[in-house]
Each structure stands twice: as C-alpha cells, then as structure tokens.
C-alpha cells in the first residue's frame, strides 16, 4: 500500500512541476503525508520550511520533520538536529541536537556524523570523540571532514601531529575541489610539510586554489610569478594576482603592491598608488607597511601635514615592536617638527 501511495506522489509531483507548479505538488505530498508516508512527510516539511507551494511556516515544518524523523527518516533527523543545534525555530539545545544527529548517524548519514564531531570539537572538552566522529565522516568522503582531519593532524589538536597523514587528508579533500585544501596542498609542496618540497607542484596547486578565489593562494601565486619560483618570472602576472588578493584584503599582497608601485618594478613608478596600497595594509595592522608609510610621508616635504602622518604611522609600527620605526621616532624626537 505504501508503495502505491509513494508512486502516486511521484507521478502527481512530476505532473505538478511540469504543468501546475509547486502548489499541486504540495497538495500531493500533504495527502500522502497524512496517510503516513514518511518520504512525503519529509518533503511536506521542506515545502513549509522554504515556502514552496504554500505559505512559509517554520513551526509546521518542524512538526512534519519531527513526524518523519520519528519514523526513521535520516534526512529529517539530521535537519531536526541542525534546528536544535543552531536554535532555528526552536530553543537552542545541544542535547536534543545530539539526540537527532545520533539517530541519523546510526543510518550512516554523513552530515550527521560530521555534526556530532563538530559539537564535541567546539566544546573543546572531548577531542577523542570529536576525532572519532569527524574521521567517520571523512572516511565516508565528506570533504570538509577530510579538511578538518588534516588541520588537526597538522597542528596536533587532540591528536599527535603527523604532517604526512595531514597531507593525505588534504589531498582527499582537494581531489573533491575543496578550495582551502587546494591551497594547503600547495603550501605543503612549497614548504616541504609532510611531502618533499617541490616548487613546480606548489605553483600548480596554488594556481588551482587561486582560480577558485582563495586570497592567500592568489598572494602566494603572485609571489611565485614575481620571484620565478616554480615558474618563470612574469611581473604582469604577479601584479594581476597580487591585485586579486589585495582586493580581498590580503595584507601581504597589499604590501607587495606598495613596493612594486614605489619602486616602479614592472610598472611605472607611482608613489600615490604605492601609498594607497601601503595604507590598506597598514590599516589592517601590518607593521612594515606602517613603517614604510612613515618614511614616505617624512620624505615628502610638500605638505606640512605629512610630518604628522609620518609620526602617526611610526607610532603605530613602533607599538608593535618594529625596530626601525622605534629608531625613526628616537632620531626625530629632537627635531622641531616632531615636538608637541
């Protein structure tokens, strides 16, 4: 009987999606759900959850998720877990979240396995349990879990540090296109962490991550083009990638652009442009950029305000222990323009 109900739901839903829209599909699922079909109950919950074919109603969604979850629907169990985990339509309750995550995990639900691990990881009270569950999700192929296993092995968080094992997990995630893992594979080859250093391979993996918008990979790729590491020197490409990273707020790229425009290295010298990029990095707390800004403002006597700007940036850098900035302040202490 249940098979016939489910078959009718599929047929009606297919007809609805192609001819009369989600409203008819909603009615089809509602009728089947009220007759006890667990698949229809879960789908009906989603209709209420996202307001498809009906008015969005979080409480009705939760009721139908609960009904399906009680009947053993793994996706419904996991979804209820997330609601309690993050307080979505219900009071936040980690114990209830774990209850439903465990129910789904017993059925091998990969996201539930990972969610349990992350609860233990976030409390920082039971790393062995966190690793146990995250590893289960990683073994089943969840790229984010594979990445987290790599990070814990890299830094020895709750587990003995093992850079070779970390590299293995990074690679598993990277092969699925996990962007941060693409970067860390490049970094491993760049610095010889868990694998033999290989600048050509580092360049190739950085490029994959950079093409996917990873700011630090874009910065490192720019540096490799600038210095000819793993590839030939190409200042145009270096500037291109520095710009992409700098526009995402990467201070290393912002500083590098400052240097390039200050020196006219591969481009026409442009001090105002250099100051723009140094300032962007300085405002984010980069001490070297703060110091260089001080020197540029101090050397420019065209505006009396520049001396005050120089002192400001020297002070910012000196507060972080930048030795040259400290020396600049000390050598200028007796000069009239620095006396208040």
What does this structure look like?
This is Sel1 repeat family protein. Residues 1-18 form the signal peptide. The protein has 340 residues and is an all-alpha fold. Among the domains are: 213-283, Serine Threonine Protein Phosphatase 5, Tetratricopeptide repeat (Alpha Horseshoe), CATH 1.25.40; 285-340, no CATH class. The protein is 73% helix and 0% strand. It has helices spanning 2-20, 22-34, 38-50, 58-70, 74-86, 94-105, 110-123, 127-139, 143-155, 163-174, 179-191, 199-211, 215-227, 235-247, 251-263, 271-282, 287-299, 305-318, 323-332. Helix 10 (163-174) crosses helix 11 (179-191). The longest helix is centred in the first third of the chain and has 19 residues, at 2-20. The radius of gyration is 28 Å and the shape is elongated.
| SS-derived structural category | mainly alpha
CATH topology title of the domain at 213-283: Serine Threonine Protein Phosphatase 5, Tetratricopeptide repeat
CATH top level assignment of the domain at 213-283: Mainly Alpha
**Strand segment tally:** 0
Q: How confident is the prediction overall: mean pLDDT?
A: 92
Helix share, percent: over 70%
What is the radius of gyration? Answer: 28 Å
Largest sheet descriptor: none
- CATH homologous superfamily caption of the domain at 213-283: Tetratricopeptide repeat domain
Keywords: Signal
Protein name: Sel1 repeat family protein
Organism: Shewanella sairae
Pfam families: Sel1
């Amino acid at each position: 009987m249940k098979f016939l109900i489910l078959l009718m739901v599929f047929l009606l839903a297919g007809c609805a999606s192609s001819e009369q829209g989600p409203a008819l599909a909603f009615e089809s699922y509602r009728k089947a759900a009220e007759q006890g079909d667990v698949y229809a109950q879960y789908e009906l919950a989603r209709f209420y959850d996202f307001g498809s074919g009906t008015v969005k109603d979080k409480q009705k969604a939760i009721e139908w998720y609960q009904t399906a979850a009680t009947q053993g629907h793994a996706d419904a169990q996991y979804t209820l877990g997330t609601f309690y985990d993050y307080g979505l339509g219900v009071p936040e309750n980690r114990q209830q979240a774990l209850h439903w995550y465990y129910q789904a995990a017993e059925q091998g639900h990969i996201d539930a396995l990972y969610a349990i691990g992350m609860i233990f990881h976030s409390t920082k009270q039971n790393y062995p349990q966190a690793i146990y569950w995250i590893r289960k999700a990683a073994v089943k192929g969840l790229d984010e879990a594979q990445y987290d296993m790599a990070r814990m092995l890299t830094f020895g968080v709750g587990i003995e540090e093992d850079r070779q094992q970390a590299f293995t997990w990074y690679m598993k995630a990277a092969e699925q296109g996990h962007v941060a893992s693409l970067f860390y594979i490049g970094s491993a080859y760049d610095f010889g962490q868990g694998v033999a250093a290989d600048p050509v391979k580092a360049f190739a993996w950085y490029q994959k991550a950079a093409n996917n918008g990873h700011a630090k990979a874009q910065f490192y790729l720019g540096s490799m083009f600038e210095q000819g590491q793993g590839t030939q020197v190409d200042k145009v490409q270096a500037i291109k990638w520095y710009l992409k990273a700098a526009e995402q707020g990467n201070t290393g790229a912002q500083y590098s652009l400052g240097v390039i425009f200050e020196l006219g290295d591969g481009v026409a010298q442009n001090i105002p442009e250099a100051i723009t990029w140094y300032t962007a990095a300085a405002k984010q707390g980069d001490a070297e950029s703060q110091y260089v800004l001080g020197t540029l403002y101090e050397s420019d006597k065209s505006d009396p305000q520049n001396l005050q700007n120089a002192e400001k940036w020297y002070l910012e850098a000196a507060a972080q222990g930048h030795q040259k900035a400290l020396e600049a302040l000390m050598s200028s202490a007796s000069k009239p323009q620095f006396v208040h």
